[in-house]
Amino acid sequence: MKVLAIGNSFSDDARTFVHQIAAASGLEVVIGNLYIGGCSLERHWENAREDARAYDYSKTGCENRPASIREALEEENWDFVTMQQASHFSGRYETYQPYLNELSAYVRRYAPRAEQLIHETWAYETDSTHPAFPDYGCDQRRMYALLREAYERAARDIGGARVIPSGDAFQIARGNPLFDYAHGGQSLNRDGFHASLTKGRYLLGCVWVETLTGASMVGNPFVPSLPERPDLTPTAEELAVLQAAAHEAVVRRA
Fold it and tell me: Do 201 and 119 contact (CB within 8 A), yes or no?
Protein backbone atom coordinates (compact mmCIF):
# COMPACT_ATOMS: atom_id res chain seq x y z
CA MET A 1 0.00 0.00 0.00
CA LYS A 2 1.43 3.37 -1.03
CA VAL A 3 0.37 6.81 0.20
CA LEU A 4 1.68 10.26 -0.69
CA ALA A 5 1.02 13.28 1.52
CA ILE A 6 1.03 16.76 0.00
CA GLY A 7 1.51 18.66 3.19
CA ASN A 8 3.79 20.41 5.64
CA SER A 9 5.08 19.83 9.17
CA PHE A 10 1.69 18.45 10.23
CA SER A 11 1.85 15.70 7.61
CA ASP A 12 5.46 15.13 8.66
CA ASP A 13 4.25 14.55 12.23
CA ALA A 14 1.52 12.24 10.99
CA ARG A 15 3.71 10.03 8.81
CA THR A 16 6.53 9.55 11.36
CA PHE A 17 5.42 6.17 12.75
CA VAL A 18 3.06 4.99 10.00
CA HIS A 19 5.44 2.42 8.53
CA GLN A 20 6.33 0.90 11.91
CA ILE A 21 2.75 0.81 13.19
CA ALA A 22 1.57 -0.86 10.01
CA ALA A 23 4.45 -3.36 10.06
CA ALA A 24 3.57 -4.33 13.64
CA SER A 25 0.13 -5.32 12.33
CA GLY A 26 1.67 -7.31 9.48
CA LEU A 27 0.92 -4.61 6.92
CA GLU A 28 3.28 -2.96 4.44
CA VAL A 29 2.78 0.77 3.94
CA VAL A 30 5.11 2.97 1.91
CA ILE A 31 4.56 6.62 2.76
CA GLY A 32 5.87 9.66 0.94
CA ASN A 33 5.69 13.23 2.20
CA LEU A 34 6.05 16.47 0.24
CA TYR A 35 7.15 18.95 2.88
CA ILE A 36 7.32 22.72 3.09
CA GLY A 37 6.91 24.13 6.59
CA GLY A 38 3.56 25.90 7.02
CA CYS A 39 2.60 25.30 3.40
CA SER A 40 -0.95 26.31 2.53
CA LEU A 41 -3.21 24.95 -0.19
CA GLU A 42 -2.71 28.17 -2.13
CA ARG A 43 1.04 27.65 -2.17
CA HIS A 44 0.70 23.95 -3.03
CA TRP A 45 -1.39 24.88 -6.05
CA GLU A 46 1.07 27.59 -7.12
CA ASN A 47 3.90 25.07 -6.86
CA ALA A 48 1.94 22.51 -8.88
CA ARG A 49 1.05 25.04 -11.57
CA GLU A 50 4.69 26.10 -11.88
CA ASP A 51 6.04 22.54 -11.49
CA ALA A 52 8.34 23.94 -8.81
CA ARG A 53 10.90 21.61 -7.22
CA ALA A 54 10.21 23.35 -3.94
CA TYR A 55 9.64 20.38 -1.64
CA ASP A 56 11.71 18.29 0.70
CA TYR A 57 10.48 14.89 -0.45
CA SER A 58 10.82 11.92 1.88
CA LYS A 59 9.72 8.33 1.28
CA THR A 60 9.98 5.12 3.27
CA GLY A 61 13.42 3.62 2.74
CA CYS A 62 14.77 6.56 0.71
CA GLU A 63 16.88 9.62 1.45
CA ASN A 64 15.22 13.02 1.40
CA ARG A 65 15.61 15.03 -1.77
CA PRO A 66 14.15 18.03 -3.60
CA ALA A 67 11.10 17.32 -5.75
CA SER A 68 8.04 18.82 -7.36
CA ILE A 69 4.51 17.58 -6.77
CA ARG A 70 4.42 16.16 -10.30
CA GLU A 71 7.70 14.27 -9.81
CA ALA A 72 6.39 12.64 -6.66
CA LEU A 73 3.00 11.82 -8.17
CA GLU A 74 4.62 10.13 -11.15
CA GLU A 75 7.27 8.26 -9.17
CA GLU A 76 4.99 5.59 -7.70
CA ASN A 77 1.66 3.98 -8.48
CA TRP A 78 0.11 5.61 -5.41
CA ASP A 79 -2.96 4.08 -3.78
CA PHE A 80 -3.72 7.25 -1.83
CA VAL A 81 -2.83 10.94 -2.05
CA THR A 82 -3.63 13.19 0.90
CA MET A 83 -4.11 16.94 0.97
CA GLN A 84 -4.51 19.33 3.89
CA GLN A 85 -4.65 23.00 4.72
CA ALA A 86 -1.98 24.80 6.72
CA SER A 87 -2.96 24.62 10.38
CA HIS A 88 -3.29 28.38 10.81
CA PHE A 89 -5.88 28.49 8.00
CA SER A 90 -7.56 25.21 8.95
CA GLY A 91 -10.78 26.74 10.26
CA ARG A 92 -11.16 29.39 7.55
CA TYR A 93 -12.74 27.78 4.51
CA GLU A 94 -12.32 30.88 2.35
CA THR A 95 -8.58 30.04 2.31
CA TYR A 96 -9.18 26.56 0.83
CA GLN A 97 -10.69 27.51 -2.50
CA PRO A 98 -10.21 27.60 -5.42
CA TYR A 99 -6.82 26.08 -4.60
CA LEU A 100 -8.06 22.74 -3.26
CA ASN A 101 -10.23 22.06 -6.31
CA GLU A 102 -7.37 22.96 -8.64
CA LEU A 103 -4.89 20.79 -6.72
CA SER A 104 -7.34 17.89 -6.66
CA ALA A 105 -7.74 18.07 -10.45
CA TYR A 106 -3.95 18.19 -10.82
CA VAL A 107 -3.53 15.10 -8.65
CA ARG A 108 -6.22 13.31 -10.65
CA ARG A 109 -4.32 14.12 -13.84
CA TYR A 110 -0.98 12.66 -12.71
CA ALA A 111 -2.18 9.97 -10.28
CA PRO A 112 -5.56 8.97 -11.75
CA ARG A 113 -5.95 5.70 -9.85
CA ALA A 114 -5.13 7.13 -6.41
CA GLU A 115 -7.90 7.73 -3.91
CA GLN A 116 -7.73 11.31 -2.71
CA LEU A 117 -8.07 11.83 1.03
CA ILE A 118 -8.42 14.95 3.13
CA HIS A 119 -6.12 15.03 6.15
CA GLU A 120 -7.89 16.86 8.98
CA THR A 121 -5.29 18.66 11.08
CA TRP A 122 -5.78 19.36 14.80
CA ALA A 123 -6.52 22.26 17.08
CA TYR A 124 -3.74 23.95 19.03
CA GLU A 125 -3.10 23.40 22.72
CA THR A 126 -5.10 25.52 25.16
CA ASP A 127 -2.13 27.78 25.96
CA SER A 128 -0.60 27.81 22.49
CA THR A 129 1.44 30.88 21.59
CA HIS A 130 1.04 30.32 17.84
CA PRO A 131 0.41 33.73 16.25
CA ALA A 132 -2.73 32.44 14.50
CA PHE A 133 -4.40 31.15 17.67
CA PRO A 134 -6.03 34.56 18.39
CA ASP A 135 -7.90 34.12 15.07
CA TYR A 136 -9.84 31.41 16.93
CA GLY A 137 -10.22 33.41 20.12
CA CYS A 138 -7.37 31.37 21.67
CA ASP A 139 -10.07 28.75 22.17
CA GLN A 140 -9.12 25.15 21.38
CA ARG A 141 -12.70 23.91 21.16
CA ARG A 142 -13.69 26.73 18.83
CA MET A 143 -10.70 26.07 16.61
CA TYR A 144 -11.54 22.38 16.50
CA ALA A 145 -15.20 23.02 15.63
CA LEU A 146 -14.26 25.41 12.84
CA LEU A 147 -11.54 23.23 11.33
CA ARG A 148 -13.75 20.14 11.46
CA GLU A 149 -16.50 21.96 9.59
CA ALA A 150 -14.01 23.28 7.03
CA TYR A 151 -12.42 19.89 6.39
CA GLU A 152 -15.83 18.24 6.00
CA ARG A 153 -16.71 20.85 3.40
CA ALA A 154 -13.38 20.34 1.67
CA ALA A 155 -14.03 16.62 1.43
CA ARG A 156 -17.45 17.23 -0.13
CA ASP A 157 -16.04 19.73 -2.59
CA ILE A 158 -13.62 17.24 -4.12
CA GLY A 159 -16.22 14.58 -4.70
CA GLY A 160 -16.98 13.22 -1.28
CA ALA A 161 -13.45 12.27 -0.29
CA ARG A 162 -12.80 10.41 2.94
CA VAL A 163 -11.29 12.30 5.85
CA ILE A 164 -8.32 11.15 7.91
CA PRO A 165 -9.65 12.32 11.30
CA SER A 166 -6.46 13.37 13.06
CA GLY A 167 -8.14 16.42 14.59
CA ASP A 168 -10.97 14.28 15.94
CA ALA A 169 -8.50 11.82 17.48
CA PHE A 170 -6.64 14.62 19.25
CA GLN A 171 -9.85 15.93 20.83
CA ILE A 172 -10.99 12.46 21.85
CA ALA A 173 -7.64 11.73 23.49
CA ARG A 174 -7.69 15.12 25.20
CA GLY A 175 -10.94 14.05 26.82
CA ASN A 176 -9.03 11.42 28.81
CA PRO A 177 -7.48 12.65 32.10
CA LEU A 178 -4.05 11.40 30.97
CA PHE A 179 -4.02 13.90 28.10
CA ASP A 180 -6.32 16.62 29.44
CA TYR A 181 -3.60 19.25 29.54
CA ALA A 182 -5.94 22.01 30.68
CA HIS A 183 -6.54 20.05 33.89
CA GLY A 184 -3.05 18.75 34.61
CA GLY A 185 -2.68 15.98 32.04
CA GLN A 186 0.04 15.66 29.44
CA SER A 187 -0.01 17.70 26.26
CA LEU A 188 -0.12 15.90 22.93
CA ASN A 189 1.77 18.87 21.49
CA ARG A 190 5.46 19.64 21.78
CA ASP A 191 5.25 23.40 21.25
CA GLY A 192 1.57 24.22 21.50
CA PHE A 193 0.72 23.19 17.93
CA HIS A 194 2.94 20.43 16.50
CA ALA A 195 2.38 16.87 17.73
CA SER A 196 4.50 15.63 20.62
CA LEU A 197 7.45 13.54 19.48
CA THR A 198 6.19 10.13 20.58
CA LYS A 199 2.63 10.15 21.91
CA GLY A 200 1.14 12.76 19.61
CA ARG A 201 2.86 11.36 16.56
CA TYR A 202 1.93 7.82 17.56
CA LEU A 203 -1.73 8.81 17.85
CA LEU A 204 -1.60 10.30 14.36
CA GLY A 205 0.10 7.22 12.95
CA CYS A 206 -2.62 4.98 14.37
CA VAL A 207 -5.32 7.17 12.79
CA TRP A 208 -3.60 7.05 9.42
CA VAL A 209 -2.97 3.30 9.41
CA GLU A 210 -6.50 2.45 10.52
CA THR A 211 -8.02 4.82 7.93
CA LEU A 212 -5.84 3.48 5.13
CA THR A 213 -6.02 -0.22 5.89
CA GLY A 214 -9.27 -0.69 7.81
CA ALA A 215 -7.39 -2.66 10.49
CA SER A 216 -8.08 -1.69 14.08
CA MET A 217 -5.03 -0.36 15.89
CA VAL A 218 -6.34 -1.46 19.28
CA GLY A 219 -3.73 -3.85 20.62
CA ASN A 220 -1.07 -2.93 18.06
CA PRO A 221 2.28 -3.95 19.64
CA PHE A 222 4.50 -1.17 18.29
CA VAL A 223 5.87 1.16 20.98
CA PRO A 224 7.31 4.49 19.78
CA SER A 225 10.58 5.48 21.40
CA LEU A 226 13.50 7.83 20.94
CA PRO A 227 16.93 6.58 22.07
CA GLU A 228 17.91 10.05 23.22
CA ARG A 229 14.64 10.57 25.15
CA PRO A 230 13.61 7.33 26.89
CA ASP A 231 11.44 9.41 29.20
CA LEU A 232 9.07 10.04 26.29
CA THR A 233 8.27 6.36 25.72
CA PRO A 234 4.53 5.79 26.33
CA THR A 235 3.36 3.46 29.06
CA ALA A 236 1.03 0.57 28.30
CA GLU A 237 -1.87 2.59 29.73
CA GLU A 238 -1.06 5.58 27.54
CA LEU A 239 -0.76 3.40 24.44
CA ALA A 240 -4.16 1.88 25.15
CA VAL A 241 -5.77 5.32 25.48
CA LEU A 242 -4.18 6.56 22.25
CA GLN A 243 -5.14 3.44 20.31
CA ALA A 244 -8.72 3.69 21.55
CA ALA A 245 -8.90 7.39 20.60
CA ALA A 246 -7.62 6.67 17.10
CA HIS A 247 -10.07 3.82 16.66
CA GLU A 248 -13.01 5.86 17.91
CA ALA A 249 -12.15 8.74 15.57
CA VAL A 250 -11.99 6.47 12.54
CA VAL A 251 -15.19 4.61 13.44
CA ARG A 252 -17.08 7.89 13.88
CA ARG A 253 -16.10 8.93 10.35
CA ALA A 254 -16.95 5.61 8.73
Answer: no
